[in-house]
Amino acid sequence: MVDYRFTVVVEQDEDGRFLAICPGLQGCYTEGETKEEAMELIHDAIRLHLQDRLENGEPILREVESRQVRVAV
Fold first, then answer.
1. Burial, 32: exposed, middle or buried (Cβ in 10 Å; 0-12, 13-18, 19+)?
2. Mean local confidence (pLDDT), 19-40
3. What whole-number distance in Å separates Cα of residue 50 and Cα of residue 27?
4. Angstrom distance (rounded) from CA 72 to CA 52
5. What mean pLDDT is predicted for residues 4-9?
6. Which of 27, 28, 41, 69 is the most exposed place for a label (fewest CB within 10 A)?
């Protein structure tokens, strides 16, 4: 079993729901009523996404670095 690590970004939408996004896996996201629920669901989404990629012989890229950047507009 290989241990993968991915960055997850959690945002709150205008309705108060929480969106969890895994930027390293295109299209891998979920939402929940709470941050905790969103994080539980994104773990499952990531696992299923990885299983699908492995079953189809698709590569799984590893994150090298993530950072926050400040941009003034």
1. middle
2. 97
3. 12
4. 39
5. 95
6. 69
Q: Which CATH class is domain 1-73?
A: alpha beta
Q: What does the block give as tokens for 21? A: 């996004």
Could you tell me which of 38, 45, 5 has the C-alpha nearest to residue 19?
38
CA dist 29 and 13 (Å) reads 14
Residue in this structure with the two tokens 């539980």, named with its chain if needed: 40
**pTM (2 d.p.):** 0.87
The separation between CA 8 and the C-alpha centre of its own chain, rounded to angstroms, equals: 4
Domain map (residue ranges) of the chain: 1-73
